[in-house]
Write a structure and sequence with these properties.
Length: 87
């Protein structure tokens, strides 16, 4: 499945959350990630994220789609990290 993930964490937890999300998805902008991930991979990511998070202060938002082709992506301004992979 294709997901877009965003998190908002306290200062002390931001670095850990960044490293975790980079293991599973492509970083595209501050605290925002996207990419293809399996159901199992997403469950693993969420379990690990809950260990890092303070659920009373932090949030994790995940948008899911069966395939990236069902989403139109428009970038206005600077694209922080391109996800295009040209060989």
């Amino acid at each position: 499945m294709y997901v877009i993930l965003m998190y908002d964490c306290g200062e002390k937890r931001v670095g850990k959350m960044l490293k975790l999300c980079r293991r599973y998805l492509h970083w595209i902008q501050n605290s925002v990630f996207e990419g293809e991930i399996s159901e199992v991979g997403l469950k693993e990511l969420c379990i690990e994220a809950k260990k890092i998070m303070n659920e009373k202060e932090d949030s994790l938002i995940i948008f899911k789609s069966r395939n990236e082709k069902w989403l139109d992506k428009e970038i206005i301004g600077l694209e922080k990290n391109s996800t295009d992979n040209f060989l």
